[in-house]
Amino acid sequence: MEELGRRAARGAGVTVAGQVARVVVQMLSVVVLARLLTPSDYGVIAMVLVVVGVGEVVRDLGLSTAAVRTRTLTEAQRSILFWANALIGATLMTALVVGAPLVGAIFGRDDVVPVARLVAVVFLLNGLAAQLRADLQRRLRFGSLAAVDVGSQVTGAVVAIVLAVGGAGVGALAAQQVTQSFVVLVACAALCRWVPSRPRRGVPMGELWRFGGSLAASQIAVYIGNNVDALVIGTRLGPTALGLYDRAYRLVMTPVSQVRSPTTTIALPVLSRLVEEPERLRRYLVRAQLALAYPVMIGAAMLVGTAGSATEVLLGDGWDGAAPLVRFMATSALLQTLAYVCYWVYLVFGLSSLLLRYTLVTVALKVVLVVVGSTWGVVGVAAAYTLAHTLEWPLSLVWLSRHAPIPGRRLAVGALHILGVGAVVALGAHVGTLLVDGPAWLALLVGLAAGTVLLVAALVLAPIRRDAADVVDVVRAALVRRR
Protein backbone atom coordinates (compact mmCIF):
# COMPACT_ATOMS: atom_id res chain seq x y z
CA MET A 1 0.00 0.00 0.00
CA GLU A 2 2.93 2.32 0.73
CA GLU A 3 4.26 1.67 -2.76
CA LEU A 4 0.81 2.48 -4.18
CA GLY A 5 0.86 5.80 -2.33
CA ARG A 6 4.28 6.66 -3.73
CA ARG A 7 3.23 5.78 -7.26
CA ALA A 8 0.04 7.80 -6.91
CA ALA A 9 1.98 10.79 -5.60
CA ARG A 10 4.50 10.63 -8.43
CA GLY A 11 1.68 10.18 -10.90
CA ALA A 12 -0.11 13.20 -9.48
CA GLY A 13 3.05 15.30 -9.84
CA VAL A 14 3.60 14.30 -13.45
CA THR A 15 -0.06 14.74 -14.28
CA VAL A 16 -0.25 18.19 -12.72
CA ALA A 17 2.84 19.27 -14.65
CA GLY A 18 1.30 17.96 -17.86
CA GLN A 19 -1.98 19.71 -17.19
CA VAL A 20 -0.24 23.00 -16.50
CA ALA A 21 1.42 22.66 -19.89
CA ARG A 22 -1.94 21.87 -21.53
CA VAL A 23 -3.59 24.86 -19.91
CA VAL A 24 -0.82 27.14 -21.14
CA VAL A 25 -1.11 25.77 -24.68
CA GLN A 26 -4.90 26.01 -24.74
CA MET A 27 -5.00 29.50 -23.29
CA LEU A 28 -2.43 30.70 -25.81
CA SER A 29 -4.45 29.17 -28.64
CA VAL A 30 -7.60 30.89 -27.31
CA VAL A 31 -5.82 34.24 -27.19
CA VAL A 32 -4.38 33.86 -30.70
CA LEU A 33 -7.39 32.29 -32.44
CA ALA A 34 -9.86 34.77 -30.91
CA ARG A 35 -8.01 37.45 -32.86
CA LEU A 36 -8.03 35.48 -36.12
CA LEU A 37 -11.59 34.14 -36.08
CA THR A 38 -15.06 35.56 -35.40
CA PRO A 39 -17.71 34.72 -32.80
CA SER A 40 -19.75 33.24 -35.66
CA ASP A 41 -16.91 30.82 -36.51
CA TYR A 42 -16.84 29.64 -32.93
CA GLY A 43 -20.61 29.40 -32.93
CA VAL A 44 -20.61 27.03 -35.91
CA ILE A 45 -17.97 24.70 -34.42
CA ALA A 46 -19.83 24.78 -31.09
CA MET A 47 -23.01 23.63 -32.86
CA VAL A 48 -21.14 20.67 -34.32
CA LEU A 49 -19.43 19.80 -31.06
CA VAL A 50 -22.74 19.67 -29.21
CA VAL A 51 -23.67 16.72 -31.43
CA VAL A 52 -20.20 15.21 -31.43
CA GLY A 53 -20.04 15.33 -27.64
CA VAL A 54 -23.16 13.19 -27.26
CA GLY A 55 -21.76 10.77 -29.82
CA GLU A 56 -18.46 10.55 -27.94
CA VAL A 57 -20.20 9.35 -24.80
CA VAL A 58 -22.07 6.73 -26.82
CA ARG A 59 -18.85 5.80 -28.62
CA ASP A 60 -17.03 5.04 -25.38
CA LEU A 61 -20.09 3.37 -23.80
CA GLY A 62 -18.39 3.59 -20.39
CA LEU A 63 -16.03 0.79 -21.44
CA SER A 64 -12.81 2.73 -20.79
CA THR A 65 -13.79 3.31 -17.17
CA ALA A 66 -15.02 -0.27 -16.87
CA ALA A 67 -11.60 -1.49 -18.03
CA VAL A 68 -9.74 0.77 -15.59
CA ARG A 69 -11.75 0.02 -12.47
CA THR A 70 -11.90 -3.79 -12.80
CA ARG A 71 -9.26 -5.58 -10.77
CA THR A 72 -8.52 -8.18 -13.42
CA LEU A 73 -8.80 -7.80 -17.19
CA THR A 74 -7.87 -10.69 -19.44
CA GLU A 75 -6.36 -10.31 -22.88
CA ALA A 76 -9.54 -11.65 -24.47
CA GLN A 77 -11.72 -9.13 -22.58
CA ARG A 78 -9.42 -6.29 -23.53
CA SER A 79 -9.58 -7.22 -27.21
CA ILE A 80 -13.37 -7.40 -27.18
CA LEU A 81 -13.54 -3.95 -25.55
CA PHE A 82 -11.17 -2.57 -28.20
CA TRP A 83 -13.24 -3.86 -31.11
CA ALA A 84 -16.47 -2.71 -29.48
CA ASN A 85 -15.19 0.87 -29.15
CA ALA A 86 -13.79 0.79 -32.70
CA LEU A 87 -17.03 -0.53 -34.19
CA ILE A 88 -19.17 2.04 -32.38
CA GLY A 89 -16.79 4.78 -33.48
CA ALA A 90 -16.97 3.73 -37.14
CA THR A 91 -20.76 3.53 -36.96
CA LEU A 92 -21.08 7.01 -35.46
CA MET A 93 -18.67 8.46 -38.02
CA THR A 94 -20.79 7.09 -40.83
CA ALA A 95 -24.00 8.29 -39.19
CA LEU A 96 -22.69 11.86 -38.83
CA VAL A 97 -21.39 12.00 -42.40
CA VAL A 98 -24.77 10.90 -43.71
CA GLY A 99 -26.82 12.89 -41.21
CA ALA A 100 -24.86 16.16 -41.39
CA PRO A 101 -27.67 17.91 -43.35
CA LEU A 102 -30.04 17.11 -40.48
CA VAL A 103 -27.65 18.75 -38.01
CA GLY A 104 -27.55 21.81 -40.25
CA ALA A 105 -31.34 21.89 -40.43
CA ILE A 106 -31.68 21.70 -36.63
CA PHE A 107 -29.56 24.82 -36.23
CA GLY A 108 -30.76 26.45 -39.45
CA ARG A 109 -27.18 26.81 -40.79
CA ASP A 110 -25.98 25.25 -44.05
CA ASP A 111 -22.33 25.94 -43.17
CA VAL A 112 -22.60 23.43 -40.31
CA VAL A 113 -22.82 20.51 -42.78
CA PRO A 114 -19.23 20.41 -44.16
CA VAL A 115 -17.79 21.08 -40.72
CA ALA A 116 -19.78 18.18 -39.23
CA ARG A 117 -18.57 15.83 -41.95
CA LEU A 118 -14.94 16.77 -41.36
CA VAL A 119 -15.15 16.38 -37.59
CA ALA A 120 -16.95 13.03 -37.93
CA VAL A 121 -13.65 11.16 -38.31
CA VAL A 122 -12.96 11.99 -34.64
CA PHE A 123 -15.38 9.19 -33.67
CA LEU A 124 -13.28 6.54 -35.40
CA LEU A 125 -9.94 7.89 -34.17
CA ASN A 126 -11.10 8.09 -30.56
CA GLY A 127 -12.74 4.68 -30.77
CA LEU A 128 -9.45 3.11 -31.81
CA ALA A 129 -7.56 4.95 -29.04
CA ALA A 130 -10.00 4.33 -26.16
CA GLN A 131 -8.67 1.03 -24.82
CA LEU A 132 -5.07 2.01 -25.54
CA ARG A 133 -5.49 4.97 -23.19
CA ALA A 134 -7.26 2.76 -20.65
CA ASP A 135 -4.31 0.37 -20.68
CA LEU A 136 -1.85 3.16 -19.93
CA GLN A 137 -4.11 4.33 -17.12
CA ARG A 138 -4.41 0.83 -15.63
CA ARG A 139 -0.63 0.57 -15.57
CA LEU A 140 -0.39 3.99 -13.87
CA ARG A 141 1.70 5.38 -16.73
CA PHE A 142 0.65 8.92 -15.98
CA GLY A 143 3.80 10.46 -17.44
CA SER A 144 3.09 8.88 -20.81
CA LEU A 145 -0.53 10.03 -20.75
CA ALA A 146 0.54 13.57 -19.88
CA ALA A 147 3.02 13.62 -22.75
CA VAL A 148 0.37 12.37 -25.18
CA ASP A 149 -2.16 14.97 -24.09
CA VAL A 150 0.26 17.89 -24.23
CA GLY A 151 1.66 16.81 -27.59
CA SER A 152 -1.79 16.50 -29.13
CA GLN A 153 -2.82 19.92 -27.83
CA VAL A 154 0.32 21.60 -29.18
CA THR A 155 -0.01 19.96 -32.59
CA GLY A 156 -3.71 20.77 -32.87
CA ALA A 157 -3.16 24.39 -31.85
CA VAL A 158 -0.36 24.87 -34.38
CA VAL A 159 -2.45 23.40 -37.20
CA ALA A 160 -5.44 25.59 -36.28
CA ILE A 161 -3.39 28.78 -36.10
CA VAL A 162 -1.65 28.12 -39.43
CA LEU A 163 -4.97 27.42 -41.15
CA ALA A 164 -6.65 30.43 -39.52
CA VAL A 165 -3.86 32.72 -40.72
CA GLY A 166 -4.43 31.27 -44.20
CA GLY A 167 -8.11 32.24 -44.05
CA ALA A 168 -9.62 28.81 -43.37
CA GLY A 169 -12.15 30.25 -40.90
CA VAL A 170 -14.13 27.65 -39.01
CA GLY A 171 -12.27 24.94 -40.95
CA ALA A 172 -9.23 25.71 -38.78
CA LEU A 173 -11.20 24.79 -35.66
CA ALA A 174 -12.48 21.58 -37.26
CA ALA A 175 -8.94 20.60 -38.28
CA GLN A 176 -7.78 21.23 -34.72
CA GLN A 177 -10.23 18.62 -33.40
CA VAL A 178 -9.21 16.00 -35.94
CA THR A 179 -5.48 16.61 -35.48
CA GLN A 180 -5.66 16.21 -31.71
CA SER A 181 -7.48 12.87 -31.97
CA PHE A 182 -5.08 11.58 -34.63
CA VAL A 183 -2.00 12.42 -32.55
CA VAL A 184 -3.50 10.74 -29.47
CA LEU A 185 -4.18 7.55 -31.43
CA VAL A 186 -0.71 7.33 -32.97
CA ALA A 187 1.05 8.12 -29.69
CA CYS A 188 -0.99 5.66 -27.60
CA ALA A 189 -0.47 2.90 -30.16
CA ALA A 190 3.29 3.51 -30.09
CA LEU A 191 3.41 3.46 -26.28
CA CYS A 192 1.19 0.38 -25.79
CA ARG A 193 2.69 -1.76 -28.56
CA TRP A 194 -0.33 -4.03 -28.37
CA VAL A 195 -2.27 -5.69 -31.16
CA PRO A 196 -5.78 -6.84 -30.26
CA SER A 197 -6.76 -10.42 -31.01
CA ARG A 198 -9.91 -11.51 -32.78
CA PRO A 199 -13.00 -11.43 -30.54
CA ARG A 200 -13.95 -14.86 -29.19
CA ARG A 201 -17.15 -16.31 -27.81
CA GLY A 202 -17.49 -17.43 -24.21
CA VAL A 203 -15.48 -14.57 -22.73
CA PRO A 204 -17.10 -13.30 -19.48
CA MET A 205 -18.12 -9.73 -20.34
CA GLY A 206 -21.42 -9.30 -18.48
CA GLU A 207 -20.15 -7.18 -15.60
CA LEU A 208 -18.17 -4.92 -17.95
CA TRP A 209 -21.18 -4.38 -20.25
CA ARG A 210 -23.54 -3.68 -17.34
CA PHE A 211 -21.25 -1.20 -15.61
CA GLY A 212 -20.32 0.50 -18.88
CA GLY A 213 -23.91 0.73 -20.06
CA SER A 214 -25.19 2.31 -16.85
CA LEU A 215 -22.25 4.70 -16.72
CA ALA A 216 -22.71 5.68 -20.37
CA ALA A 217 -26.39 6.40 -19.79
CA SER A 218 -25.56 8.69 -16.88
CA GLN A 219 -22.77 10.36 -18.89
CA ILE A 220 -25.17 11.03 -21.75
CA ALA A 221 -27.57 12.62 -19.30
CA VAL A 222 -24.73 14.70 -17.81
CA TYR A 223 -23.63 15.79 -21.26
CA ILE A 224 -27.12 16.83 -22.24
CA GLY A 225 -27.43 18.76 -18.99
CA ASN A 226 -24.06 20.44 -19.49
CA ASN A 227 -24.80 21.33 -23.11
CA VAL A 228 -28.48 22.18 -23.08
CA ASP A 229 -27.34 25.78 -22.73
CA ALA A 230 -25.41 25.63 -26.01
CA LEU A 231 -28.31 23.85 -27.73
CA VAL A 232 -30.84 26.43 -26.56
CA ILE A 233 -28.63 29.37 -27.52
CA GLY A 234 -27.76 27.88 -30.91
CA THR A 235 -31.37 27.23 -31.85
CA ARG A 236 -32.96 30.34 -30.31
CA LEU A 237 -30.31 33.06 -30.34
CA GLY A 238 -28.04 32.19 -33.30
CA PRO A 239 -24.34 31.47 -33.95
CA THR A 240 -22.95 34.85 -32.87
CA ALA A 241 -24.54 34.60 -29.41
CA LEU A 242 -23.42 30.98 -29.18
CA GLY A 243 -19.88 31.91 -30.23
CA LEU A 244 -19.73 34.57 -27.52
CA TYR A 245 -21.06 32.13 -24.92
CA ASP A 246 -18.73 29.36 -26.11
CA ARG A 247 -15.61 31.55 -25.80
CA ALA A 248 -16.60 32.60 -22.28
CA TYR A 249 -17.25 28.96 -21.42
CA ARG A 250 -13.95 27.75 -22.90
CA LEU A 251 -11.97 30.57 -21.33
CA VAL A 252 -13.09 29.37 -17.91
CA MET A 253 -13.78 25.67 -18.30
CA THR A 254 -10.75 24.71 -20.41
CA PRO A 255 -8.18 25.25 -17.65
CA VAL A 256 -10.57 23.94 -14.99
CA SER A 257 -11.30 20.74 -16.91
CA GLN A 258 -7.58 20.23 -17.43
CA VAL A 259 -7.18 20.31 -13.66
CA ARG A 260 -10.18 18.10 -12.87
CA SER A 261 -10.20 15.42 -15.55
CA PRO A 262 -6.75 13.92 -14.91
CA THR A 263 -7.47 13.65 -11.19
CA THR A 264 -9.93 10.88 -12.05
CA THR A 265 -7.13 9.15 -13.95
CA ILE A 266 -5.15 9.05 -10.71
CA ALA A 267 -7.94 8.71 -8.16
CA LEU A 268 -9.87 5.83 -9.73
CA PRO A 269 -7.17 3.13 -9.72
CA VAL A 270 -5.91 4.29 -6.30
CA LEU A 271 -9.26 4.57 -4.50
CA SER A 272 -10.39 1.26 -5.99
CA ARG A 273 -7.73 -0.34 -3.79
CA LEU A 274 -9.12 1.37 -0.67
CA VAL A 275 -12.75 0.23 -0.80
CA GLU A 276 -12.09 -2.16 2.09
CA GLU A 277 -10.52 0.59 4.23
CA PRO A 278 -13.43 3.04 4.69
CA GLU A 279 -11.74 5.42 7.16
CA ARG A 280 -8.64 5.77 5.03
CA LEU A 281 -10.80 6.33 1.96
CA ARG A 282 -12.70 9.09 3.80
CA ARG A 283 -9.46 10.87 4.68
CA TYR A 284 -8.35 10.68 1.06
CA LEU A 285 -11.62 12.19 -0.13
CA VAL A 286 -11.50 15.14 2.28
CA ARG A 287 -7.92 16.03 1.39
CA ALA A 288 -8.56 15.43 -2.30
CA GLN A 289 -11.44 17.91 -2.28
CA LEU A 290 -9.26 20.57 -0.65
CA ALA A 291 -6.33 19.96 -2.98
CA LEU A 292 -8.56 20.02 -6.06
CA ALA A 293 -10.96 22.84 -5.18
CA TYR A 294 -8.66 25.43 -3.61
CA PRO A 295 -6.59 25.99 -6.79
CA VAL A 296 -9.79 26.12 -8.86
CA MET A 297 -11.27 28.57 -6.35
CA ILE A 298 -8.31 30.92 -6.68
CA GLY A 299 -8.58 31.06 -10.46
CA ALA A 300 -12.38 31.28 -10.43
CA ALA A 301 -12.44 34.05 -7.82
CA MET A 302 -9.85 36.07 -9.71
CA LEU A 303 -11.90 35.75 -12.90
CA VAL A 304 -15.12 36.76 -11.18
CA GLY A 305 -13.45 39.87 -9.82
CA THR A 306 -11.53 40.88 -12.95
CA ALA A 307 -13.85 39.58 -15.68
CA GLY A 308 -14.15 42.86 -17.57
CA SER A 309 -10.42 43.50 -17.81
CA ALA A 310 -9.54 39.83 -18.31
CA THR A 311 -11.84 39.31 -21.29
CA GLU A 312 -10.60 42.49 -22.96
CA VAL A 313 -6.97 41.43 -22.54
CA LEU A 314 -7.41 37.77 -23.46
CA LEU A 315 -10.01 37.93 -26.24
CA GLY A 316 -9.37 41.34 -27.75
CA ASP A 317 -11.88 43.40 -29.73
CA GLY A 318 -15.19 42.02 -30.96
CA TRP A 319 -16.01 40.11 -27.77
CA ASP A 320 -18.02 42.74 -25.91
CA GLY A 321 -20.52 41.23 -23.52
CA ALA A 322 -18.39 38.25 -22.50
CA ALA A 323 -17.56 39.60 -19.01
CA PRO A 324 -20.87 38.73 -17.24
CA LEU A 325 -20.79 35.31 -18.88
CA VAL A 326 -17.28 34.71 -17.56
CA ARG A 327 -18.38 35.62 -14.03
CA PHE A 328 -21.20 33.09 -14.10
CA MET A 329 -19.02 30.41 -15.69
CA ALA A 330 -16.26 30.83 -13.12
CA THR A 331 -18.78 30.43 -10.30
CA SER A 332 -20.21 27.32 -11.94
CA ALA A 333 -16.73 25.85 -12.39
CA LEU A 334 -16.04 26.05 -8.66
CA LEU A 335 -19.39 24.55 -7.69
CA GLN A 336 -18.88 21.66 -10.13
CA THR A 337 -15.43 21.01 -8.71
CA LEU A 338 -16.73 20.79 -5.15
CA ALA A 339 -19.00 17.93 -6.19
CA TYR A 340 -16.33 16.13 -8.21
CA VAL A 341 -15.13 13.78 -5.48
CA CYS A 342 -18.66 12.37 -5.27
CA TYR A 343 -18.27 11.27 -8.89
CA TRP A 344 -15.20 9.26 -7.91
CA VAL A 345 -17.17 7.48 -5.19
CA TYR A 346 -19.88 6.44 -7.64
CA LEU A 347 -17.22 4.90 -9.89
CA VAL A 348 -15.12 3.28 -7.16
CA PHE A 349 -18.11 1.53 -5.56
CA GLY A 350 -19.66 0.59 -8.91
CA LEU A 351 -22.79 2.67 -8.24
CA SER A 352 -23.42 3.42 -11.89
CA SER A 353 -27.19 2.81 -11.71
CA LEU A 354 -27.46 5.12 -8.69
CA LEU A 355 -25.40 7.72 -10.53
CA LEU A 356 -27.81 7.46 -13.46
CA ARG A 357 -30.84 8.16 -11.28
CA TYR A 358 -29.20 11.13 -9.60
CA THR A 359 -28.05 12.47 -12.96
CA LEU A 360 -31.52 12.28 -14.47
CA VAL A 361 -32.89 14.39 -11.62
CA THR A 362 -30.19 17.06 -11.89
CA VAL A 363 -30.36 17.18 -15.68
CA ALA A 364 -34.10 17.73 -15.59
CA LEU A 365 -33.52 20.58 -13.13
CA LYS A 366 -30.89 22.16 -15.37
CA VAL A 367 -32.96 21.87 -18.55
CA VAL A 368 -35.93 23.61 -16.95
CA LEU A 369 -33.78 26.41 -15.54
CA VAL A 370 -31.86 27.00 -18.79
CA VAL A 371 -34.98 27.07 -20.95
CA VAL A 372 -36.58 29.58 -18.58
CA GLY A 373 -33.34 31.59 -18.37
CA SER A 374 -33.08 31.87 -22.16
CA THR A 375 -36.03 34.28 -22.00
CA TRP A 376 -33.51 36.87 -20.80
CA GLY A 377 -30.98 36.12 -23.53
CA VAL A 378 -27.49 34.68 -23.30
CA VAL A 379 -26.83 36.19 -19.85
CA GLY A 380 -30.04 34.62 -18.58
CA VAL A 381 -28.82 31.22 -19.78
CA ALA A 382 -25.50 31.67 -17.98
CA ALA A 383 -27.26 32.68 -14.78
CA ALA A 384 -29.56 29.65 -14.98
CA TYR A 385 -26.59 27.36 -15.57
CA THR A 386 -24.94 28.68 -12.40
CA LEU A 387 -28.13 28.41 -10.36
CA ALA A 388 -28.48 24.76 -11.37
CA HIS A 389 -24.99 23.93 -10.09
CA THR A 390 -25.64 25.88 -6.89
CA LEU A 391 -28.56 23.55 -6.18
CA GLU A 392 -26.82 20.38 -7.36
CA TRP A 393 -23.79 20.58 -5.07
CA PRO A 394 -25.59 20.06 -1.71
CA LEU A 395 -27.96 17.61 -3.36
CA SER A 396 -25.01 15.46 -4.45
CA LEU A 397 -23.71 15.19 -0.87
CA VAL A 398 -27.09 14.28 0.59
CA TRP A 399 -27.87 11.80 -2.19
CA LEU A 400 -24.58 9.92 -2.00
CA SER A 401 -24.27 9.96 1.81
CA ARG A 402 -27.21 7.57 1.98
CA HIS A 403 -25.51 4.95 -0.17
CA ALA A 404 -21.73 5.14 0.36
CA PRO A 405 -19.33 5.73 3.28
CA ILE A 406 -18.43 9.34 2.47
CA PRO A 407 -17.58 11.99 5.09
CA GLY A 408 -20.47 14.25 4.08
CA ARG A 409 -20.17 16.70 6.97
CA ARG A 410 -16.40 17.15 6.60
CA LEU A 411 -16.76 17.64 2.84
CA ALA A 412 -19.48 20.26 3.39
CA VAL A 413 -17.43 22.18 5.96
CA GLY A 414 -14.38 22.14 3.69
CA ALA A 415 -16.48 23.39 0.79
CA LEU A 416 -17.87 26.27 2.86
CA HIS A 417 -14.33 27.32 3.74
CA ILE A 418 -13.44 27.35 0.05
CA LEU A 419 -16.52 29.32 -0.96
CA GLY A 420 -15.99 31.87 1.79
CA VAL A 421 -12.37 32.54 0.84
CA GLY A 422 -13.40 32.69 -2.82
CA ALA A 423 -16.02 35.36 -2.16
CA VAL A 424 -13.48 37.53 -0.31
CA VAL A 425 -10.85 37.14 -3.05
CA ALA A 426 -13.36 37.94 -5.81
CA LEU A 427 -14.53 41.07 -4.01
CA GLY A 428 -10.96 42.25 -3.48
CA ALA A 429 -10.02 41.65 -7.10
CA HIS A 430 -13.07 43.54 -8.33
CA VAL A 431 -12.39 46.52 -6.09
CA GLY A 432 -8.81 46.53 -7.34
CA THR A 433 -9.93 46.86 -10.97
CA LEU A 434 -12.24 49.76 -10.05
CA LEU A 435 -9.30 51.71 -8.64
CA VAL A 436 -7.58 51.89 -12.03
CA ASP A 437 -8.60 54.44 -14.64
CA GLY A 438 -6.32 53.22 -17.40
CA PRO A 439 -5.63 50.35 -19.82
CA ALA A 440 -7.27 46.98 -19.27
CA TRP A 441 -3.98 45.16 -18.68
CA LEU A 442 -3.11 47.51 -15.80
CA ALA A 443 -6.56 47.12 -14.22
CA LEU A 444 -6.17 43.34 -14.53
CA LEU A 445 -2.79 43.35 -12.79
CA VAL A 446 -4.03 45.57 -9.96
CA GLY A 447 -7.13 43.40 -9.51
CA LEU A 448 -5.04 40.22 -9.36
CA ALA A 449 -2.72 41.83 -6.83
CA ALA A 450 -5.61 42.95 -4.62
CA GLY A 451 -7.17 39.49 -4.74
CA THR A 452 -3.83 37.91 -3.82
CA VAL A 453 -3.46 40.18 -0.79
CA LEU A 454 -6.84 39.10 0.56
CA LEU A 455 -6.07 35.44 -0.20
CA VAL A 456 -2.94 35.66 1.95
CA ALA A 457 -4.85 37.59 4.62
CA ALA A 458 -7.35 34.70 4.88
CA LEU A 459 -4.55 32.58 6.34
CA VAL A 460 -5.01 34.49 9.59
CA LEU A 461 -7.98 32.20 10.24
CA ALA A 462 -6.97 28.87 11.82
CA PRO A 463 -9.36 26.66 9.75
CA ILE A 464 -8.02 28.16 6.52
CA ARG A 465 -4.43 27.58 7.70
CA ARG A 466 -5.25 23.94 8.35
CA ASP A 467 -6.78 23.62 4.90
CA ALA A 468 -3.70 25.24 3.36
CA ALA A 469 -1.44 22.83 5.25
CA ASP A 470 -3.38 19.86 3.87
CA VAL A 471 -3.12 21.24 0.34
CA VAL A 472 0.62 21.80 0.75
CA ASP A 473 1.06 18.24 2.05
CA VAL A 474 -0.73 16.83 -1.00
CA VAL A 475 1.32 18.98 -3.39
CA ARG A 476 4.56 18.08 -1.61
CA ALA A 477 3.74 14.38 -1.86
CA ALA A 478 3.04 14.79 -5.56
CA LEU A 479 6.37 16.49 -6.16
CA VAL A 480 8.59 14.19 -4.11
CA ARG A 481 10.05 11.40 -6.20
CA ARG A 482 10.94 8.05 -4.85
CA ARG A 483 14.58 7.97 -3.81
Automatic annotation (TrEMBL):
Instruction: Assign the protein's first listed, main location to one coarse class.
Output: membrane
Enumerate the transmembrane spans: 80-106, 112-130, 142-166, 178-195, 290-308, 328-349, 356-376, 382-400, 412-435, 441-462
Q: Does the keyword Membrane apply?
A: yes
List the Pfam families: Polysacc_synt_3
Q: How does it sit in the membrane?
A: Multi-pass membrane protein
Task: State the UniProt keywords alphabetically.
Answer: Cell membrane, Membrane, Transmembrane, Transmembrane helix
Which InterPro entries does the UniProt entry name for this protein? Poly_Biosynth_Transport
Compartments where located: Cell membrane
Q: Which family does it belong to?
A: Belongs to the polysaccharide synthase family.
Name of protein: Lipopolysaccharide biosynthesis protein
